[in-house]
Records
---
Amino acid sequence: MAYEVTKPDEQWRAELDPQEYAVLRQAATERPWTGELLDEKRLGTYRCRACGAVLFRAETKFDSHCGWPSFYAPTADDAVELIEDRSLGMVRTEVRCARCGSHLGHVFDDAPQTPTGDRYCMNSVSLSFELVDAPAPDDPTGGR
């Protein structure tokens, strides 16, 4: 697939720290229960750490008890790319950023408690979190 954002490998290495590069560009996995976004509960947007594309919203995040941030749906049908992954002797579905092709994690259909039944199990290091601005306490419009 041709991606909107493409960079030579040397540029990705220069822009990402070693763990980000290993996960985003080499499909590594961060250790469970270690990601900085695992317990993030504030309203906001989750973006691809490599290219900044909007991928998930806080409203779709849920506690799946798997050790990685989990979401039940991406922001749009074309925000992520799903690819069959036969590594590690099993069949899984890899999730990549549709804008730059970076590895984000995997999706599983084992979350019946969610509206979609899906669990997008993402590496924290593959995402950046952008807090949604809360309305000022004296704003009568509630920020609208």
Note: DSSP finds two helices and nine strands in the chain.
---
Amino acid sequence: MLALRPNCEGCDRDLPPDGTEAMICSYECTYCRSCVDKILANVCPNCGGGFCPRPIRPTKAYRPGVSLGHQPASETRVLSRYSKAEMQEFAQSLKRIPPQQR
């Protein structure tokens, strides 16, 4: 199950579980759309994969026991171990290769 991390790992911007600005890679690395577009060029600085919009977990339980209330979003903030310059350099090296070919 997705952790729904509460912040962008790049700029530490809040990313609420019902927000549409969160982007994730296949390892759940979480960044805001702005960082993905302007700094990362759709290249995850941790794995080299691409990003997609993070799904929104329903607040209402349309099925018993399945909702944000039953499986809450993470409260643990995560920040990248890489500097902005390191992230940009890594992204530049891979951005010309489509995510499905990386």
Note: The CA atoms of residues 45 and 87 lie 5 Å apart.
---
Amino acid sequence: MSASALQQAQGFLDFVNESPTPYHVVSTVKNELKKHGFQELSERSNWAGKIKKNSKYFVTRNASSLIAFAVGGEYQPGNGFAMVGGHTDSPVLRIKPISKQSKEGYHQIGVEPYGGGIWHTWFDRDLSVAGRVFVNYPDTGKCVAKLVKINRPLLRIPTLAIHLTKDRYVKFEFNKETQFKPIAGLVNSSSSSSSSKPVEARDGCCKGEELTEEEFHSVKTTIERHNKELLDLISQELDIEPSQIEDFELVLYDTQPSCLGGMKNEFIFSPRLDNQVTCYSATEALVKSAADGKLAKSSGIQLISLFDHEEIGSLSAQGADSSFLPNVLERLTRLTANPQVDLTSELPSSYFLTTMAKSFMISSDMAHGVNPNYTENYEAYNCPHLNDGPVIKINANQRYVTNSAGIVLLKKIGNLSKVPLQLFVIRNDSPCGSTIGPMISAKLGVRTLDLGNPQLSMHSIRETCGSADIEKLVALFESYFENYSTLEDTISVDGVE
């Protein structure tokens, strides 16, 4: 592996190790963008007069989705956008709203599966917690969201010993509600509770007694709903008192760091490859392509959109099926104009329609690399390999929205960047996953192609991809951002000049 490929692979390792949740992904991307001159915008304010040519910006929603863009120095209203879309979330276990439980002398944490994970891989792993915490500051009257990531093992979901199973060779199965609870420690001998029932089911709150003003809470306090020791650890991490924690959104993550693997460092062993590979590569490519000298000569807008909630269907205020991207695109197409134009007045909506017709979206999500132990599960002539380059994903039933026009464009981009491309289709007797591509192309009417780096063990707590493929995806995106405006006009789809 070349020195440059190793550097990009190490950059990704650092990225994913810092980003156990969508909130951390967005924070990590924000820091990288700010370091390279991107200015933060807010959806709560008017952007009129704030968007300039040869300038770079980003905006977030819910602190878990982010859109960043660079406006070319030669941009004109109605010109096309070169866009890359991905997602910030991965299958994970989320702590329940009331998580305080104990059984047989163990503290347990109630968790809820998020997305379609390979859940048996979560057993016997060294787990900790991360996410965002809303902290109350009584002196100001404000509640402020703070990121937390406890960097040591706290939890474990233990499997049943093989000696105690009825059939040692039966398929590993378990009940997600009763047998998928992490243990967090031992209950002190002074504790009066070792029951299997959660505390909230035993405290008499539903017996109809009239509560005093001191006893009443519209929702029980965080201290009552969650394990005290866990709250103490979070408070120490944030340097606050436990009573200041108003609420939180915390998930479990594997504390084993992402790392290089293989006899020649040809692999990356890591959690959350799906889809932090895109988050990292798209950010790197946008930063590189928007360097001052290059951006000044660009006639388009280069944009990345990183959405939360893809793993559960994208239907949320900050998902790909939300108004986030359309809202940002409408603002840009109406308010970005010549210096002589008064930017406090909006341009006609026809600019938005013209721009979408000239734009392109690469829906970037990880692809299935061939697993040598299960070759019978792959279409024989469309088996992508690790470190052989990004994969164009195709499905006749539009689970992926790639078509020939998009393939022609990507081939041109690949030739310019010297990045090899692979093709993938699912077997006819297998179901096909999907991406943000279909919903974005339908919502915006924009041409879209599905693409991603190949990986093994998708949706496992520990996945595998090729270490050299990170550099290839960055280079492909960078070339796409830099060359799309020139290439777009060379591919005629509807026969209209």
Note: Residues 189-208 have pLDDT under 50 and may be disordered.
